[in-house]
Give the backbone structure.
Amino acid sequence: MPALESRLKIGELARLAGKTIRAIHLYEELELLTPAERSPGGFRLYDTSNLERIQFIDKMQRLGLSLGDIRGLLHQWTQSATAPGAMKGVEELYRAKLAETRAQIRELRALEGELLINLSYLEGCQRCETPAEPVAACPSCERPHTVPATELITGLASP
């Protein structure tokens, strides 16, 4: 990332963050982002902490949080009376997101396994001796396959 000047205009910040100017304005409207200062001409000026906040927002959205959720988290953070209290709330959120992420990974691994099984099944279709066979016969094919068809194959012919 290029070295940042001490202050950036909104277009420069948006470009560095990979966001639109409208997104930056929205973050400000939702009180997720506050310009570092204003120029004598009234322009919003930003610094590296603003870029870090945008990166934080982006990562939290990728974790599945809405902008409203992020706003709530930041509000909770700023309203905490103590640092340990603030960190406890963040820890609880991160533990919940970790559990969700692990569940998604398990689901994706199961889907990966099913896709691999079906690809093995489909490889057997490439050796079909009667290429003129109607497509409707495929899901109930009685030709030998190395693996049985699963719902990803049999569901093709279901009404």
Summary: The first helix runs from residue 10 to 17. Residues 106 and 112 are 10 Å apart (CA to CA). The chain has two domains: 1-66, 80-159. Strands lie at 37-38, 44-45.
